[in-house]
Amino acid sequence: MKPVKPFVINRSGRIVFPFNFFPELDFSAFETLDQFASVIKRDFEEKAPTESDIVSRVQGGVYRTRYEILRDLALNLFWVNRYALTMYDKRPTRWRDVPRRRDDVFLPVFKAWDVAELAAPIEAGYRALPPAWDMEAEDTSFRILMDVFRYKPGAGAELPAIKPTVAEALADPGNLTWHLPDYDPDYPGYSYDDIIDHTHRVPEVEALMRQSMVLHNQYRWDRARSGLIEVGKLRDDDYVVVFCPRNDDVLQFIRRVKSGGRARPPRPVAAESRRPFKPYPPVEVRKRFAVMPRVEAITVYKGEHACTNDDLIRNAAYCWSRMTAKEILEKTGIEQRLYTELDLEQMALAAAQEALKKSGRRPEEIGALLFCTCTSVRLIPSVATWLSGQLGVFQTHGSCDIVAACAGMSYGLAEAVRLLQEVERPVLVVCAEKFSDKIGTVRTSRMIFGDGAAAVVVSPAPADAAPDIEVVQTYASGPMSEVDSIIWPNPEFDNNITVYGPEVKALVKRYLAQMIGELKALPHPEGGAGTLLDAIDLTVPHQANKTMVVSLAQAAGLAPERLYFNIDRVGNTSAASILLAIYDAVKEGRIDRPMRVFAPGFGAGAVGGYVVMRVDPAVVS
What is the pLDDT of residues 196-220, one digit of tens each? Predict the structure, then answer.
């Protein structure tokens, strides 16, 4: 898997996702041309109108503002340049200096086409429309985009992914390729910093201008003097534009495609999903264990950068359908998500250090350390052992990582209660996620996920004391459609994290109904009338998608007013989300006294789980 894709902070202090403007695919994940073609179709072709589509929309009066034409032009030009942007560097080179027999230098071949009959109605249609926000800025983008559109050498649908080598192109002297009578290597263009640091008061215009600058740089020569020429008529001092693979992974992919690849062993076939022969009952801590758990501290670390919905629009990628900031809020219940520049481990360490400080525990007192995450790129040593060392814990009974995604807290606290029986000393549970650098250009994931960390110290309670953690339950698996409902790394999406909404909704619906049924079957903990569900003061669910969770919780029998959410301000932080929400519920006074909290989690891998716990505001840092 390739390195992660971090955000940057530009000179104006705004979050920018460079990969949304500079397409970068992991070609080591592609075995065949069909695999690559499916990604190109999804990310470029399906989003982009053809040249004729734009003309038809102009003539049909579809466009209401200049911005709408501009956005379609940009999408079209990203599609036209889909292979150059993802596979090749374009290098104007004097013909005498072009190697003729190498397999890593390519000479693109085009078909002649008349762009004038398409450009004229687009220009006229643009002039007839009002600007959406800023005439000057929109006209600047139009000049750049139309200059590229007018002089691009061919229609987008006719461009092959694998370009011919120079020898292959020369095999037919009538093949047409780019011709430049001369070339200025200092021809004006936009630097990386120009693109990243560009700002505008209107998020849509800011994104559009960045896209325009990237597209201009694809043709960094005097386009008015360029044209097509038969390769057999090239002279030594003419310039052509050769295509060179952007990196070795691209070159190896081209070689795999040309060689026909090799046969792979067949994959095992998944078995039919079958339900357990009897349900797994929830674990009632007081009845099952001798050592009762006490929660001594809950601490958090929140990402230091807020990424608002407007920030997402400012970073609209070449493969995103149009969406407004308001529509993102309505769809997800999220106004902003928090991101950090720290590594996952550093964020987790900050939360863990604060938890030891809050609890008053020394490193030598810690008996075990559990780290819950689904976004770690560290395998050896495990993050849990790394944290143990960083905290000054010389030895534990056990330090290990738990990958239970959005049910991470439930898994971590359930295991902590079990470990207490063996070590009879404090167990430190740390939950942390860093999604911001693992999303890439996947729009649905970018709307939802944030970064954050939290830590809990669970210690043996005094003799005869009631447990703070009263009930624990964990689940996993289901039909493969739900198991694979959230995937990272996903090679079909350039190893970015992907969420399949309908399948996630199905597993959340299934687990919530099961959880509520179990709580209704357990007696009231104080022996009063009703059930454990009736004794719940507040439900703090995994902060997945507020709109979805509220709807499904209501269907399962939970009133919205009994639910607490902070996802609108922090995003979905998977394993860390419930503890971050508990922290905010205390901070806001929603938990203003010791309260019984039901905390359900559910997510990737079709995992689920919950805890019923007593939360005392005094233990929250």
Answer: 999 999 999 999 999 999 999 999 9
Q: Which one, of 406, 418, 421, 338, lies nearest residue 370 by Cα?
A: 418
Q: For residue 271, what is the DSSP state?
A: P
Q: Which CATH number covers residue 610?
A: 3.40.47.10
In contact, 26 and 461? CB cutoff 8 Å = no
Q: Burial code of 452-487, b = ≥16 C-beta within 10 A, e = fewer?
A: bbbbbbbbbbeeeeebbbbbbbbbeebbeebbebbb
Tokens representing residue 138 in the block: 């929109």
The answer to whether the predicted template modeling score (pTM) of the entire model surpasses 0.85 is yes
| Contact (CB, 8 A) for 504 and 485 | yes
Q: State pLDDT tens for residues 575-600.
A: 999 999 999 999 999 999 999 999 99
Q: Which residue has the tokens 């001798």?
A: 290
In a domain, 277, yes or no: no
d(CA 546, CA 508): 12
73's enclosing H/E stretch is helix 66-80
Are the C-beta atoms of 577 and 542 separated by less than 8 Å?
A: yes
Picking from 224, 259, 294, the residue at the C-terminal end of a domain is 259
Query: Is residue 108 situated within a structural domain?
Result: yes
Same domain? For 549 and 439 the reply is yes
- Give me the phi and psi of 239, to 5 degrees please: -105, 140
Considering the domain architecture, whether residues 514 and 578 belong to the same structural domain is answered as yes
397, 500, 405: which is closest to 444 by C-alpha? 500
51: containing domain: 8-259
Contact 88, 144 (CB under 8 A): no
Distance CA 232, CA 277 (A): 75
pLDDT score at 2: 52
Give yes or no: residues 198 and 321 share one domain.
no
- Is the domain of 241 the same as that of 296? no
Residue 133 lies in a domain: yes
Element (H, E) at 36: helix 33-40
User: Is residue 218 located within the same domain as residue 332?
Assistant: no
Domain count, the chain: 2
Cβ contacts of 148 within 8 Å, gap of 6 or more = 77, 215, 216, 218, 219, 223
Element counts in the chain: helices (H) and strands (E)? 22, 20
* Pair (223, 323) in one structural domain: no
Amino acid at 375: T
Q: Show which residues are catalytic.
A: 406, 542, 572
Average pLDDT over the chain, rounded to whole? 94
Look at residue 3 and tell me if it is in a domain. Answer: no
Query: Six-digit token pair at 614?
Result: 């007593």
Q: Are residues 40 and 161 in the same domain?
A: yes
Report DSSP letters for 346-393, one per residue. Answer: HHHHHHHHHHHHHHT--GGG--EEEEE-S-----SS-HHHHHHHHTT-
On whether both 290 and 232 belong to a single domain, the answer is no
